[in-house]
């Protein structure tokens, strides 16, 4: 019993130091303001009223939500059939294909964004390929520095995140359920829609949520491949901490992002029983 | 018809894997390209960019800083992650699910929130940004990774061994060290390797916590902002190879254990 309490205290201290205190600091700063590059330590809702009144902030937030929804939807549409494909393979090949989707998660986040910039760029890989094969006469500059370049790059980053929960949900479906479905006369597609698909829903919701959250908060992808038309909400936060030196406004913007994401997690847990994925 | 479906599936999988690996392949390819612009066809191959790495002291200092951050961060995360996993897996705690959720948060939340909130905490406490603050940032998101892997392992590990040990008079601490820890060793190791590679590559959180000493990804981030250099490709090719090796080790460890477990259960 003594050991349990000691561990509990240590873990609670961890949570306090790394989660509760930073978020409290963020909340505190968000009610402060800045004057002449000096932080004014007095309570005011000035930052929040500015964010909710100035159309710049809300329209960027809305645009970011839309973009993240597109990335998450495409990510699920690609990951789901991929998960089915990998799950149908056997033995070592299955292991390799499975790890093959995950591996890019760990081989350089920055390099993948950077590389997409050179792939999509005017003198880049795709353009020179298109010119080389004669499809284009001149390299096109329309591939890079826009929202679709951001979506493509974010997809490349989010697919592994979406794949993991979908795959583990599909893999856990007992084979005898499918046998039972077949015994009762269900064909392949009927068995899929009535057995596999409903049972994989928690994975789909979790995957969708992960893709949405990673894209929503990403500021490095937009600043490398987005150009001026591709900037997102995260870039605005980044600017407040960098060039603008307006930490209180940055804190308020982060706070709104945090609250929004917590709402998304709560919704996902309600809809898709996401907890089941975390626990088993 | 069935054959056509199979070919379609194969083609689809091929396109997705290409999509995932194209940036990595392009990076490796152009790290050997003599020209300073990334245009096809490649006219001449060269090792110059790799040779240049040896004389680039800034890069070496940054790589060293990355190790200074990653090693202690991973070590700390192993201790806390394993502790948390053991606590949540072996004991019923009031509010345990909520605590677990809070520990998981830095893994789920975008790095920008971890970065800004810690940045503001350090500002509030008047702590100057340094490699130390980056280490603290990294601990937050490696710990859940270790916790995940160790919890998964603990779930599949026969608890009766622990009971037997305690029946024979071993203290809980002794039981943990002699029975539990050896059994979850591979999960801890896998967590450590994954944590190390994630931390070594991390730039999103570090961005808000870094002082004057750059880590490797931070240096590369500033290099990218200034423009293109094929040397970045060379550095990243080496990092990719390094990460892939660690992942292969971590992966095979985990899978070996999974499979041997599956065999004994049969």
TrEMBL record, chain A:
Q: Where in the cell is it found?
A: Cell membrane
- Output the SUPFAM superfamilies linked to this UniProt entry: MetI-like
| Entry GO terms, CC | plasma membrane
Q: Name one Pfam family in it.
A: BPD_transp_1
Q: What is its main location?
A: membrane
- Which GO BP terms apply? transmembrane transport
Keyword annotations for this protein, in alphabetical order, are:
Cell membrane, Membrane, Transmembrane, Transmembrane helix, Transport
Under the heading InterPro entries, the entry gives: MetI-like, MetI-like_sf
Membrane-crossing ranges are 6-32, 67-86, 92-111, 148-170, 191-213, 245-268
Q: Which positions fall inside the ABC transmembrane type-1 domain?
A: 61-268
Cited Gene3D superfamilies: MetI-like (1.10.3720.10)
Q: The organism sits in which domain of life?
A: Bacteria
Q: How does it sit in the membrane?
A: Multi-pass membrane protein
Family per record:
Belongs to the binding-protein-dependent transport system permease family. CysTW subfamily.
Q: What is this protein called?
A: ABC transmembrane type-1 domain-containing protein
Query: Native species of this protein?
Result: Paenibacillus durus ATCC 35681
Automatic annotation (TrEMBL), chain B:
User: According to its record, what are the GO cellular component terms?
Assistant: plasma membrane
Signal peptide feature range: none
**Gene3D superfamilies registered for this protein in UniProt:** MetI-like (1.10.3720.10)
Q: Pfam families, per this entry?
A: BPD_transp_1
Family listed: Belongs to the binding-protein-dependent transport system permease family. CysTW subfamily.
Location(s), subcellular: Cell membrane
Q: What is this protein called?
A: ABC transmembrane type-1 domain-containing protein
Chief location of this protein?
membrane
Which controlled-vocabulary keywords does the entry list?
Cell membrane, Membrane, Transmembrane, Transmembrane helix, Transport
Q: Does the keyword Membrane apply?
A: yes
Going by the entry's taxonomy, the superkingdom of the source organism is recorded as Bacteria
Q: Which GO terms describe its biological process?
A: transmembrane transport
Transmembrane segment boundaries: 7-32, 67-89, 101-125, 131-151, 187-211, 231-251
What is the originating organism of this protein? Paenibacillus durus ATCC 35681
């Amino acid at each position: 019993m003594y050991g349990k309490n000691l561990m509990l205290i240590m873990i609670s201290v961890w949570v306090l130091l790394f989660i509760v205190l930073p978020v409290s600091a963020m909340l505190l700063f968000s009610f402060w303001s800045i004057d002449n590059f000096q932080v004014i330590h007095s309570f005011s809702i000035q930052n929040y009223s500015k964010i909710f009144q100035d159309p710049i902030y809300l329209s960027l937030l809305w645009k970011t939500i839309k973009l993240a929804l597109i990335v998450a939807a495409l990510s699920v549409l690609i990951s789901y059939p991929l998960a089915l494909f990998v799950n149908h393979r056997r033995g070592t090949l299955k292991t390799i294909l499975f790890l093959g989707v995950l591996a890019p998660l760990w081989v350089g986040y920055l390099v993948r964004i950077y590389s997409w910039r050179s792939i999509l760029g005017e003198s880049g890989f795709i353009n020179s390929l298109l010119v080389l094969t004669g499809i284009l006469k001149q390299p096109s500059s329309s591939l890079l520095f826009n929202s679709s370049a951001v979506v493509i790059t974010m997809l490349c980053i989010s697919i592994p995140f979406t794949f993991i929960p979908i795959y583990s949900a599909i893999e856990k479906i007992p084979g005898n359920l499918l046998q039972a479905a077949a015994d009762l006369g269900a064909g392949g597609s009927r068995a899929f829609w009535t057995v596999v698909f409903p049972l994989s829903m928690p994975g789909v919701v979790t995957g969708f949520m992960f893709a949405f959250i990673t894209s929503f908060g990403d500021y490095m992808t937009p600043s490398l491949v987005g150009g001026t038309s591709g900037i997102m909400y995260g870039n605005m936060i980044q600017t407040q901490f960098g060039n603008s030196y307006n930490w209180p406004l940055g804190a308020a913007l982060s706070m709104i992002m945090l609250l929004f994401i917590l709402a998304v997690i709560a919704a996902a847990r309600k809809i898709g029983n996401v907890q089941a994925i975390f626990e088993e | 018809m069935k054959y056509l479906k199979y070919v379609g599936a194969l083609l689809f999988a091929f396109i997705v894997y290409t999509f995932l690996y194209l940036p990595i392949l392009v990076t490796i390819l152009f790290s050997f390209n003599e020209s300073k612009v990334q245009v096809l066809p490649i006219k001449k191959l060269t090792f110059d960019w790799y040779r240049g790495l040896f004389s680039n002291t800034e890069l070496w200092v940054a790589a060293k800083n990355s190790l200074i951050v990653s090693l202690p961060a991973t070590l700390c995360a192993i201790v806390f992650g394993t502790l948390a996993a053991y606590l949540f897996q072996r004991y019923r705690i009031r509010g345990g699910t909520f605590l677990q959720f809070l520990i998981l948060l830095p893994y789920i939340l975008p790095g920008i929130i971890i970065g800004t909130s810690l940045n503001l905490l350090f500002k509030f406490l008047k702590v100057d940004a340094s490699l130390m603050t980056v280490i603290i940032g990294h601990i937050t998101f490696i710990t859940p990774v270790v916790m995940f892997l160790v919890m998964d392992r603990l779930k599949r590990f026969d608890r009766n061994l622990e009971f037997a040990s305690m029946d024979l008079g071993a203290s809980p601490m002794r039981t943990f060290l002699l029975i539990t820890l050896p059994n979850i060793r591979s999960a801890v190791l896998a967590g450590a390797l994954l944590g190390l590679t994630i931390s070594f590559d991390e730039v999103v959180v570090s961005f808000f916590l870094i002082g004057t000493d750059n880590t490797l990804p931070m240096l590369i981030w500033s290099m990218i902002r200034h423009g293109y250099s094929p040397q970045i490709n060379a550095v990243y090719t080496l990092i990719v190879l390094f990460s892939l090796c660690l992942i292969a080790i971590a992966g095979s460890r985990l899978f070996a254990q999974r499979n041997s477990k599956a065999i004994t259960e049969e």
